[in-house]
Amino acid sequence: MDKVYNIILVWLNYHTRIMKRFIVAILSVFLMVSCSDSKYDFDFKSTSQALDCYQSFCDETKGKEIAHSEDVVSVLKEWKEVRDTVLSFLQKDSAYYAHSWILSRYSSIDDSIRSRLLNMVLEKNFSLKDVAVIKRGSSVYSKDVDVTASVAGILPFFSRLDSIPLYHADKNKVLSRYRDFLQSAKKKGCGNAGELKDFVREEDRIFRTFLYNLAEMSGENLSDITKGTEEICNSIFKSASQGKIDSKTTLLIMSCRSNRRILLNAETCIESLRKHRKLSLSQKKAYYWMAIQPFVSIDQLGWAALSDEQFCRICEAADEIHRLDRNSHVSKDLENVSHMVNLILKLYLTSY
């Protein structure tokens, strides 16, 4: 198997590990959605009343019908509202920590709800486009006014990146430029939002040039580029954690950056598969897995940070992947797309 296969997959997924750690560290910078408009009575007087409310929601899931992806979004948002409110009340009561039966009953109800939702969702023939609709619609940040406003101020910067031309460089020249850029960026660092945008702007230009030459990268050892990029991103998040760069701005810029890279990479790989290029089995595997990364690797903040135009492109990518699968442009040795959809949804619902 070509070295580039594993290297690129690691390269695509490293940001997820870093972003998750950073999100946990600064989660408080965002306001969570209010639950005041719920049909449920959340004026609990006791632990038992809170648990009974959660049990009532669990019982109601038996009668819920899921026909479309929008139905899944509605149920997930309602579940999160009830669950978060009940758990918040329970954790304020010292009895929650003193009596194991409380946590035991809560966990039992929670598991029952999750199991029922999984069964209802997985029995449907959902598509990758449905995955996109479900993940974007059920993101905990989808209705967060603070996130929406902040993203609206950042997206124009990323839209302008498309007007910057690629470098005129072959495989060797672009790799050399990439390595020189990373070394320079590592020495310089990012001390403010302006320098962070400068880094993202130049990195994006080189990355797009790299993708233009992607078909020639088979067999190349990219581990130093992967490591260098990860070190710089770690440094950026460290600076934000230390207050050198605004943490909220940093998080959103890096989230939008990741979205853009994942989507551009997926589109490049889909186009390569579509054009019947002579690809080795390892290349087909790498391209296939990179093509479905938008549906796997984008996290909850990432889905909220997508522009409408990017979301439409993800949906178009979903349709194209299914078409390629139907026309056997993807090797029979790879996972069936419909099977992958169920795996993605199962993973998402299990961790929701």
From TrEMBL:
Full protein name: Lipoprotein
